[in-house]
Amino acid sequence: MSTATISSPLSMSKSSTTTCDSLLRELQKMWDEIGESESERDKMLLQLEQECLEIYRRKVERSKKYKTELQRSLADFEAEIARLTSALGERVSVPRYEKMNGNIKHQISVISPTLESLRVKRQERVKEISELEFQIAVISAEIAGTDKVLDPSGIQVDEVDLTTKKLGELKSHLQELQFEKNLRLQKVSDHISVIHGLSVVMSLDFKTIMAKIHPSFVDTVVGQSKSISNEVLARLTSQMNSLKQEKQQRLLQAQNYGRTLMELWSLMDTPVEEQNKFNHVTHLITLTVDEVVSPGSLSVDVIEQAEVEIGSLNVLKVSKMKELVFKRQSELEEIYNAVHMDLDIDKARRLLITLIESGTADLSELLSSMDDQIAIAKEEAQSRKDILDKVEKWKHASEEESWLDEYERDENRYSAGRGVHKNLKRAEKARILVSKIPILVESLTSKVKAWEQERGMSFLYNKAPLLRTLEEFVISRQAKEEEKRRSREHKKLQDQIATEQEAIFGSKPKKPLGQSTNTNTMASTPNSRRMGTPARFGVSGGNGRRDNVKVGGVIPINYVALAKEER
Hints:
This protein is mainly α. Helix content is about 70%, strand content about 0%. The chain has 16 helices and two strands. Strands 1-2 form a two-stranded antiparallel ribbon. α7 packs parallel to α10 (about 300-340), α10 (about 300-340) runs parallel beside α12 (about 365-410) and α12 runs antiparallel to α14.
């Protein structure tokens, strides 16, 4: 075989061909020197060619295998990129290797950075999701009341779904749980605060109460929060409601004791100094359950002290009840007397003595009944007050009218002397006051009629119907006015006769003995023509005499008492 035949199938580079040719020439030279035959030479050249082909064949197989591995790696890279982009939920544009330009290694070098970036992002996403799921697991365990300590390494993340959607859902879920946790912590804190306040008010052991609910409320380990489970919240709520109910019961008991103490103190006129010792009990009477916040104000000791005091006072109660009953009777009598109401004092006292000595009467009920009578009497007295005030004004005006009549009958009232100036001033005021008597009587009559119509009973004043007394006064006043009118006409006639005699005889006849020289006094003071003091009230005149004369007669048919308010 020629040298050209050997070198042609090898397709070697120029440098390699030159080397093989030189070696072949060297081999032929050596064969020439050895004296090898042509057949031997062809045989050895054929063997040499077969060995070269075998080496090439092995090299080609290895190259094919390497190419296949590279292609597989490239496909694996693309598949991993697809999985990662699917898991991460991201879009990555990576062309398939069939459509890429360049060799396989170049294609691998192109997609390797993308793959590495996705791998890093996957690790970060797995870590982030793992932390979120761990926090969710921790809060969920707290809400569920699980005492098991969780290990972050025990969290298994599903790497199939690493999308931002899942990440957002986990974050949203964590926020909801954190919000729920904060609400529960606030609720726990509020309940603990209420329980503490209730414990302080009732002097209860707060730590013992909280330890029974959950140890975390007393001996909290560093880093461990208070329990917020449903069971613990239920215990807190139950304990809080139980303490509120107990506080309400204690307050009601203390208020009842306080009212009882005040009733007993009032019955027995207990000194203020003794009452002040239990101010911390009596001041609770007007408070609501939410207003009682003072430490120890509803403790067992406070309630027991009040109970003991009530027991002591009850022992003294009976001995003073009789005294108090008669004291109330005196108070009732004073009220009736003050407003001129009819009351048979002797009969009422005899009845009380009979009831008490019989032993059948409940003194407390009797005292309560008398308090009711006093309240009714005060109400009745209040309803009479306006009328009685006008009666007093009427009496005063009548007294001034009597004084004015005495004053104007005095012939020496203008004589110089001590007190003349004061009497003149009093007379001037009396005339003004007397002029208001008719209006005052009319207004008083109207009010008495309205009072009697409203209550369906007669208005008595000093055991006599006031309306009848007013009617008699009006009749008496009319009679006196008529008498004064006739007196004025008689005087006018006398003056006329005197004038005629003077004109005939030229001199004025002497006045009858005892007639006042001030003949025009009555005519010059028309406001002084008023009646005297009401007969039934026994009001004295200016000289202190009492007029007990009862005016007879009836009211004229044409008389109308107009109701006018006093100006």
